[in-house]
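thought: fold this chain, then report.
action: predict
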Amino acid sequence: MLLAHLVAALLGPLLVRLMGRSAFFPLAAVPAASAIWLATIDPVALAENPLEISVPWIPAFGIDLAFRLDPLSWVMALIATGIGAIVLLYCARYFKNTEPGLGRFAGVLTAFAGAMVGLVLSDDVMVLYTFWELTTVFSYLLVGHYQEKQASRRAAMNALISTTAGGLAMLVGLLMVAAEAGSLRLSEIVASQMWSEAGPFLIIAVLLILAGATTKSALVPTHFWLPGAMAAPTPVSAYLHAAAMVKAGVYLILRMGPALTHLEIITMIIAALGAATMILGGWRALRQTDIKLLLAYGTVSQLGFLSAVAGVATHDALLAGLAMLIAHAVFKAPLFMVVGIIDKKFGTRDLRVLSGVAKVAPMVAVIGIVSAASMAAVPPLYGFVAKEALFTALWYGQTWHRILLIALVVGSILTVAYSWRFVHGAFGTAPGAPAVQKPTIPVLFWLPPALVAVLSVALAALTGPLETILRGFSSVLPETGQTVHLAVIPHLGVPLLASAVALGVGVLACLAAKPLARFQKKVSPQSWANEEMLDRIDSERAFRRVMRLVDSAAVAVTPLFQRGSLPYTLGTMLLVLIALVAPIAVSLSPVPDNLVLFHHPVELIVLPVAALAALGAARSRRRLRAVFLISVTGYAVAVLFLVAGSPDVATTQVLVETAMTVVLVLVLRRLPTHFSRRPLKIGAWGRWAIAISTAVVLCGAALYAADARYLAPLGPGLIEKAYTIGGGHNVVNVTLVDARVWDTMGEISVLLVVATGVASLIFVTRREQSISRVRDLDTDTSIWKRRTDSTLPQNVLDFDARPEEVAGGNRWRTWLSAGLTLAPERRMVVLEVITRIAFPLMMMFSLYLLMAGHNLPGGGFAGGLVAGLALALRYLAGGRYELSEAAPVQAGFVLGIGMAIAVIAGVLPALLGGSVFSTVTPVVQVPLLGELHFPSALLFDTGVYLVVVGVILDFLRSLGAQIDQQQEVETDVR
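observation:
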C-alpha cells in the first residue's frame, strides 16, 4: 500500500499534465484498492493475530521498518484510504483544469494519504515519528496551496510550527519510554509491565508524547491553527482536517490506552483539555458566519470530545471513543465537501447571503442535513449511537468520569446549536437576501459526499458487527462494571437522559439564537478587553506574540555572531573550540607517555618547512603569496603521507592541493591584491593568540586521540579481504569503492552540490546554454584585445581566428586550437608548447590511474583530478575558447553522467539478484595481454572520475571563463 501511494504521488503531476483534473480518477484507484484490500481482512481475527511485517532499516540502532495491523490500525487505515479515495474523486470536479499548481496538489494529496496510512500502521516509534512529520510537511504544502494569498501562507506556517513543535516533544517522549521498555516497538512499549510502577520519568515522557497528540489534534491551547487552516482548498479540509491528519493525535491517545490506564493523573489532564476544547470550539462555532469556518470550529469541538473520551482509557471508553471517531469521519468529511459545492456553485460561504439553496440543490441539501443531524446526535443516525455509548461509558465509570460527562453534555448542547446554525444558514432562507440561482451540479460532484454521508445511516444498522470489530481493540483493557453496547434503541437511564437534555437544550438554544448571539457578543473579550489582555488570553494572538519575540531575539542575537565578517565568524567558532577543550586539557599531562618525536629523518626537514610556510601565509599581506604559501603546507603534508607509506593518499593530496591552488588563483582575480590593513595592534595580537591556541588544541587532540587506541588497527586485516572480496591489491581504493562505498557516494553527491552552488553564484541569471567554439567566432574576436589606439602596430593586432581553409594562407600559426583568440600580447608560446605536449600525456595518465587504481596507487578520484588539471592547463594556456575546444560539453552533463553511472553501479547488482553495490570480478582472456580482471567496482570508480572532472570543469567555466566575460564587459575591451 505504501509503495503504491508513493508511485502514485510521483506520477500525479505527470498525470495531471496529460489528463487535467481527470487525473484524480486513476489516483483515487490507489487508496480505493487499499481500502478494498483492508476490507477483505477479518478485523476480529486481527485482535488475536495482528498482521506484522518488519524489515531492518538501521540495524545499528535497532530501528526496523516495522508495521502492525490490528483492529485500531485497521479502522484508521480504512478511514484514511476509503475517505481518501472519495476525496480524490471529489477533486476531479472541484478543481478546474486551469487551477494553478494542480499537478503538485495531486501528488502531495496522494502522498499525504500514503503517509497517513504509514502512520497508523507503524509499530516502530522512529518509523511512526517519520510518518508523523511527513503528514505535517504535506499538510503544510496543502494548506499553503494558494501561494499568492497571504492568509494561506500564514495558516500553513502556523500549522507547521505548532504541530512540529509538538512532534519534537513527542519524539523525546517516545525515545524515553522506548529506553525504559528496552524496545522501539510501540506494541511492546504499551504492553510493558513498567507502567504499573510508573515514576516521574515515565510521567514526563507521557506528557511529552501527549504534547504531540494535543498539537496534532488541535486541543487547547493550540486549537487556533485548525480554523486558520481553512484557507486551504475544501478537499484538504474534508480529508486532512476532518477525517485523517487531525485524528492522528486521537489515534495516539487510543494507542497509549493500556499505559494511560495506570496513570490516572494523565487521563484527567487529557479529559480536562478535551472538555475545554469541546466547549470552546462549540462556543466559537456559534459566532461564525462563514459556514466553512463554522465547521472548522465544530471540528475543534469534536476533536476535544474524542480526545477527552480516549483519554479516559477504560475498556468501555476505548470502545465508545473508537465508535465516535468513525462517526466523526463519516459526517464531517461530507459536510466539508458540501461546503465546497456551495462555495463553487454559489460563489459564497456567508450564511447571511445564502438563501434558498435547498430548493435549487435538493440532493446537496439532503447530504448536508443528514450529516449535520448525525453530528448533532439525532436518533437513529450513527452519530447518536456512538454518542450514547460514550455517555454510557462515562456514567458507569468513576466519579470524575461523571463530572466529565456533565462537561461533555454542555459541549453536546453547543454541538446541536451549531449544527442547526449550519443547516439553517446553508440551506434555509436568509432575511433580506435574494434567492440563489439554480446551478448545474454534475453527479460526480455531489456523489462522493453522498457515498460517505450514507454511512451515517448504514452504520446505525450494522451496530452488532461493528461492535464486535471495535471490541477487538478495546479488549486490551479489562472490562469493568457495566458493559457498553452500540445500540440504535438504548436502554432507559441517565445516559439516554443526557442525550435528551443535549438535544432539548440544544433546540432551545437554536430557538433563542438571536438573544444568544447578543449575549456572546457582550461577554466576548473582544468587547471589553484591551489589546494587551487579548494578547494574553487569545491563543492565536499569544502565538503570534511569541513568534514576534522569537524574531526580535533573533534580530538582537544574530548580529552578535553573524556580522558578515569571515574572520569574526571563524574566530568565534575557534574560541568555542578552545573553551570546550581547555578544561579537559588542563587535567592531562602535557604530552602522552609514549610520544615518539619522529619516525623518519625527512620529517625533521619537512615539518619546519610547513611551519614556516604557515607562518608566512599568516603574515603575508599579498593574497597570491598567501595562497602559494598555503599550498606549500599542503605539499609538505603530502610528503609526510609518502614517508608514512601511503602513496595513494600522498598522490591525492598533491593533486587536490594543485587543483585548489588553481581555483584560488582564479578567485583572486576578483579580489584586491592585498589583504586589508588592521590598524589596531590588539586585533593582530588577538588573532595570533586564537591561531596559536587553536594549533595547540588541534595538535594536542591529535596526539591524545592516537594515544587513546585500545584495539588493534584494522588495516592489516583488510589486506587479504581487499583481494578476496574486492578483487584488488590496493586496500585504499578497494575500501573507497567497495567496503565504504556509501561514504564515497555521499562525497561525490556533496561535490555535485558544491559545483552547483559555485556555478549559481557566478552565473548571475542562468548557466550558459551553449559552448562557444572557435569555428563560430567572427574574424575580429579576441580575448582582452587592446583598443585601436594601442601603441602596437596595426598588423600585429589584425589576425584571423577562423580555420585556415576559411581564413586563407596568411593565417597565423598556433600550437593550440584557440591560441589565436588571445591578443598577441597575452599569448605565452612556451606555455602553449608545453600544453600541446603535456595535455595528451596527462589525459592518458589519468586513464591509467583510473584503470590501475584497484591494484596500484590511483583510482577514479586521482584520475579525475589529473584530467581536471589537464583541462586547467589548456584554459591557462589558451583562454576560455581553448577550454571549449578541450571539453566541448556542458559541465552539468558530465556531472550528471558521472552520478548516473555511480548510481547504476549500485543498483545494477540488486537487479541481477545480488545486493546493492555488491562486487563481482569477471576474468577476461585478452590476446597478448593475458588474463585481465575487471572488478564491477571499476564502473563506480568511472562515475567518480567523471564527477570530479565535471566539478573542475564547472569551476573553470564559472570561476574562469565566466569571470573572463564579466571582466571583458566591465573593462570594455572587446
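thought: worth noting. The beta strands are 51-58, 63-69, 923-926, 930-933.
final: C-alpha cells above.
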